[in-house]
């Protein structure tokens, strides 16, 4: 079958499950053929071998069932990085880049900051900060051992040596004497009864990385209440969170004694990141 014919048919099959049907089809075929998507504009008449056609159709069938394109390809772009992904943890999303932007806005690139990323997953946030803060010492922790191994591979994949990943339930494995200039987290923040858990990509992502008790605030509350013991004076703690959680998180920051509490919006105009500063 010709490339253009194959892509046309695949795009039609994906129209009902994806808002980016044509792009999805091109990405899957490029992955199978080990070419860039620009190849299809140059060689639309090229024929796909039977073996490659079979591989493509298997991936296409999984995408038709809703499996995220990033899991099918095995990687996802984030910040300036190429991040390996797997079903053991969340897929990095564009909204999370807002957390990186806010974090960088409070850091001096000329200083050797100590940065902690709680619930690091693929390591995307920690690695983005490490690449923009080459003098920093970045630590990322995660409860899931598979995620820690994945994050370590991503550090090697992106040739970053100023970041370390370790297995830990939040702060548990850290030395109590360690103090950080910045703590960031994209923790589980979805209410267990949220209807969105049965829709879209999140159906395939681990619920342990998505769901938290107390209307999605339980893990955030725990981190706020413990974090100050691991922060130098004037350090910042910041979270990515749900669009409707900013006010509740600001209240919890204030109750815990943080100052300079502020929320920042994402590209969609939703409150996405809330920060607080710890002053001894």
From TrEMBL:
Q: Which family does it belong to?
A: Belongs to the protein N5-glutamine methyltransferase family. PrmC subfamily.
Q: PROSITE patterns from the entry?
A: N6_MTASE (PS00092)
Q: Which UniProt keywords apply?
A: Methyltransferase, S-adenosyl-L-methionine, Transferase
Q: What class of enzyme is it?
A: transferase
What the entry lists under HAMAP family is as follows: RF_methyltr_PrmC
Ranges for domain Methyltransferase small come to 103-194
Alphabetically, the GO molecular function entries are: peptide chain release factor N(5)-glutamine methyltransferase activity
Give residue ranges for domain Release factor glutamine methyltransferase N-terminal: 5-74
Instruction: Give the lineage.
Output: Bacteria, Pseudomonadati, Pseudomonadota, Gammaproteobacteria, Oceanospirillales
Check the record and name the NCBIfam families matching this protein: hemK_fam, RF_mod_PrmC
* Record-linked InterPro entries: DNA_methylase_N6_adenine_CS (IPR002052), HemK-like (IPR004556), N5-glutamine_MTase (IPR050320), PrmC_N (IPR040758), RF_methyltr_PrmC (IPR019874), SAM-dependent_MTases_sf (IPR029063), Small_mtfrase_dom (IPR007848)
Residue positions annotated to bind S-adenosyl-L-methionine are 119-123, 142, 170, 186
Catalyzed chemical reaction(s) = L-glutaminyl-[peptide chain release factor] + S-adenosyl-L-methionine = N(5)-methyl-L-glutaminyl-[peptide chain release factor] + S-adenosyl-L-homocysteine + H(+)
Q: Which GO terms describe its biological process?
A: methylation
Task: List positions binding substrate.
Answer: 186-189
Q: Does the keyword S-adenosyl-L-methionine apply?
A: yes
EC numbers: 2.1.1.297
Function of the protein: Methylates the class 1 translation termination release factors RF1/PrfA and RF2/PrfB on the glutamine residue of the universally conserved GGQ motif.
**What name has this protein been given in UniProt?**
Release factor glutamine methyltransferase
Instruction: Specify the species.
Output: Marinomonas primoryensis
